[in-house]
Amino acid sequence: MTKERLYLYDTTLRDGQQTQGVQFSTGEKAQIAATLDAMGIDYIEGGWPGANPTDSEFFDSKPKLNATFTAFGMTKRVGMSAENDDVLAAVMNAGTEAVCLVGKTHDFHVTKALGITLAENTENVAKSVAYMVAQGREALFDAEHFFDGYKANPAYALEVVKAAYEAGARWVVLCDTNGGALPREVCEITKAVIAAGIPGDHLGIHTHNDTEHAVANSLAAVDAGARQVQGTLNGLGERCGNANLTTLIPTLLLKEPYASTLEIGVSVEALEGLTRASRMLDDILNRVPMRQAAFVGASAFAHKAGLHASAILKDPSTYEHVDPSVVGNERVIPMSNQAGQSNLRKRLADAGLEVEKGNSALGDILNRIKEAEAKGYSYDTAQASFELLARDALGLTESFFDVERYRVISERRRNARGHLVVESEAVVTVQLPNGQKTTSYFKNDHADEMSDEGPVNALWQALKSDLGPYQNVIDDVRLVDFKVRITNGGTEAVTRVIIDFEDDSGRHWSTVGVSANIVDASFEALLDALNWKLVHVGAKVARKSGAVA
User: Fold this and answer.
1) CA distance to 15, 188, 195, 199, 200, per residue, from 227 (Å)
2) Which comes out higher in pLDDT, residue 341 or 426?
3) Which residues pair with 262 in a beta bridge?
């Protein structure tokens, strides 16, 4: 059976940039566009030329893409010809292969927001599209508020989109701009548009996620016959976001009936880069990736319950709808007091610790986990701390260094200029295996600001500033994320700290610390982080250099 072509249109660089708190630099736009292009996205919308300096600069530099590079703008205004509208001219002058123009299709917005007649609006749409086509551009018409408009006045909504199609629009894109439509009505209305004379292979869908149905609504439109889908990486977008391409792409490529009836530009091989692309975007935005994100989240293939883990060992398909490696993700067997021995052995094997079934150490490890979690520890995400605990129970603990003492001080005062400042400083004394003792000092000094990086940062910098023979090993360790949870109330509350780390080789690991003192809980997690790195790299390096016996 011949597959129908379904086109993917990415609007991360335009609609995604409308996310609160998001603003891409020109270089970041180029990086994101190159990643999308490598995946096989068909259309990449670069932004709105002339709307801001960054977008204008990005279009001036015009990245080299296999995808159809697209500029976004709006239809001409009343009283102006398409040729003489300066706003439309800025979009056309960007020189892109395709241009997507937004226009009103809801009668309420035409008369209230634009303050023009319905006939004038239809004429603006038709003449703008005709002008683009005459200039040799691939024309897309973004039918704003289409589903709301259709429900209020179906005849007029259809009049506008048919005018765009008859003027030469390659794609008429139906937009659920307010994000309030539901899948059944999206499917029915899309079918009505096709029945009115606009073929499905000229019809696109653009949805927002205000009811958490953006992906479902996009699929509903595809089911009805639409053959272009618009969305953003990680579901970025105004308010609640747009349809999430990191969910849509693997669904279309791996799930039926789409896998056997539709062809998209993303190959199965390219799909392996999906998780990396998702996390690259979060890294650019300085955001912590959403663990529960479908397909690409760190917890998307995590199996906590012992029953689940036991079945996974026998056949991963028992609790996984796809192989995580297909989307570039990986399986995780977290540790908790719900874990059984099957779960435990799998997690130990992942850490390179092969323990035979029935080994008495397994029961000891489980008991230690349960006792620790009763005190407030959590090993669900702190895999590195779990591994250190297990190594200790198995008699595999290595002593790299011992912290003899630490001291940390934070001071809030007025400086010589009378400005309020906050400064943190820390001192850490470490005993090394060769008998050497080092004392390191670090101070966060922000003389002109009422802020600093805090006592935990001061401790971290002091702790890792001089570890003798291991210094080259731990120099590249970076703190990525810091999470605090109070496990009970009151001034004597127990504090749990979970810290994520990474290094230059691409390793990622997490540790946990618990104490009534938030600084001491943090310090425990920091110690585990360095010990875990030394377990995997440090001892080998140090012994090779002859620094440690």
Assistant:
1) 20, 15, 15, 9, 6
2) 426
3) 4
pLDDT at position 289 is: 83
**Tally of CA atoms within 13 A in the half-sphere of 224 that contains its CB:** 29
Which of 426, 425, 440, 428 lies closest to 402 in space, CA to CA? 428
Measure CA of the first residue to CA of the last residue in the chain; give whole Å. Answer: 68
Contact 169, 161 (CB under 8 A): no
Band of pLDDT at residue 308, cut at 50, 70 and 90: low
Using alpha carbons, list the distances in angstroms from residue 334 to 41, 470, 517, 536. Answer: 34, 29, 26, 19
Instruction: Decide: 512 and 497 in contact? Cβ < 8 Å.
Output: yes
Strands 420-431 and 228-231: unpaired
Beta-carbon contacts of residue 331 (< 8 Å; ≥ 6 apart): 301, 302, 303, 312, 316, 320, 324
pLDDT computed for residue 58 by the predictor = 95
Give Cα separations from 465 to 249, 470, 502 (angstroms). Answer: 45, 10, 17
Average per-residue pLDDT for the chain: 90
Name the burial class of residue 418, with classes exposed (0-12), middle (13-18) and buried (19+) by CB atoms within 10 angstroms of its CB. exposed
Q: Contact at 8 Å (CB) between 324 and 335?
A: no
pTM for the model stands at: 0.73
HSE of 349 in the Cβ direction (CA atoms, 13 Å)? 14
* Structure token digits, residue 8: 């993917």
Helices 383-393 and 518-533 cross at an angle (nearest 10°) of 70
Helix residue ranges per DSSP H, 331-382: 341-350, 360-374
Can you tell me the distance from the alpha carbon of 496 to that of 520, in angstroms, rounded to the nearest whole number?
Answer: 10
CB-hemisphere CA count at 13 Å for 434? 12
Residue 456 has pLDDT above 90, yes or no: yes
**271's tokens:** 């799909």
CB within 8 A of 375, min separation 6: which ones? 494, 514
Residue 546 pLDDT greater than 50, yes or no = no
